[in-house]
Fold this sequence. Notes:
By secondary structure, the protein is an alpha/beta fold. The protein has helices at residues 16-23, 76-88, 108-120, 133-141, 154-175, 183-197, 204-213, 245-250, 285-293, 312-322, 361-365, 392-405, and strands at residues 2-8, 29-32, 41-45, 48-52, 65-68, 73-74, 97-100, 104-105, 201-202, 217-221, 261-267, 270-272, 306-308, 310-311, 326-330, 340-349, 352-354, 368-375, 409-413, 421-423. Strands 9-7-5-2-10-1-11-15-19-20 form a ten-stranded mixed β-sheet, with helices on both faces. The chain is globular, with a radius of gyration of 22 Å. The model has no long low-confidence stretch (mean pLDDT 97). It binds inosinic acid.
Amino acid sequence: MSVKVIIGAQWGDEGKGKLVDFLAEDANVVARYQGGANAGHTVHIGDKKYILHLIPGGILRENVTCIIGNGVVLDPEAFFTELELVKAEGISIRDRLFISDRAHLILPYHKIIDQLSEKSKDTKKIGTTGRGIGPAYVDKYNRCGLRLSDLFNESSFKVKLQENLAAKNRVIVNEFNEDPIDFDNMFSQYMTYAGDLEPHIRDTQLLLYEAWQNGDNIILEGAQGCLLDTDFGSYPFVTSSNPTVGGAITGTGLPTTAIDTIIGVIKAYATRVGSGPFPSEKTDDTGERLRKLGHEFGATTGRPRRCGWFDAVAARYSVRINGFTYLALTKLDVLEKFPHIEVCVSYKYNNETISDFPANPEILNNCVPETVTLPGWNEAIGHCRKFEELPANAQKYVKYIEEVCKTGVKYISVGVERNQIIVR
Ligand code: IMP
């Protein structure tokens, strides 16, 4: 029996999808705890590539029950599009895909406002995915959000939706000079969704509690990453939820005492999508090479990801916040063609060395990385299945990451395939 939390230790896109799928082989339940269809979790099985946005990675293992927790904001349109793709692959979801009745709904006005508000900003764009995530969480914390459970009381849902839409239309018309959204179409669309969603709706806190009491193996799956966390990320260039460990508790309702293992998924180099400070970013040929070799293009939006060297300042900060039991180091194979590999070990700001991740975005933006250079290994590693099979310099690199993070690396991913992983 175990309850593991899987958390992105950087700016998202660390390869959480592959690890969740790998660990789900021994799991009974996989529950996603925050974010929405902004995530893109990629899993390669044979010659097939699956990109999951909302549905937990465990769906690719037929014996696993999958839960979309209360902390997630659910866009029914995105959910059903993804569900159809999953079913088309012949994967059965019967009686094993449940959504919390407490999860909040994303409505069309959330997506429109997200996109219009990004469009209206000039230099301060966040570079959101446009999936309505921020505006949906605004409503949640403003206590006017609509939850999945609201869908099943038609008359009160109608009143709440009318009130919300009137307020949103005032913003859409007066602030953005766009046409208002029609109520009737939206209402009838959501009533249709209600019927289709009903078989999936549960008190998932209770389901998870019972699974825990039962001694089941449970995985709590985070989306995005620590440095996109609303509280601890590079605010305001963050997402609107808590991918860090606290989010796993509030986003599922499992008590803290249930958790025994916290796994930080960390890429062997660094990437970020969207705007915001990124001290170890390389905008030269090295960045371009990392992007090409690592296929660093957004799984949700297709945007090219910004790339740079491993940032030990950010990684240590993430370790501190999440208390990782151990790390899963991903995409080590991407570095195999580099003769030298740099690691950012501290930042220089105003002639001073900083070794802690600063809160202020202006400071972070003006931090210059101080790096150490390690030798590369110039050799393919995709076939390695044991740590000892890695070239000596690759082993040294892994040990160096462990040293700067003060945390052990238990899993090393050496390729996109399900079995290209070293377990230590
Ligand atoms: P939002 O989550 O769509 O509001 O976007 C806020 C910021 O988080 C933007 O910089 C996005 O590019 C980033 N972001 C959101 N989801 C992901 C993800 O799954 N991986 C990486 N970046 C993400």
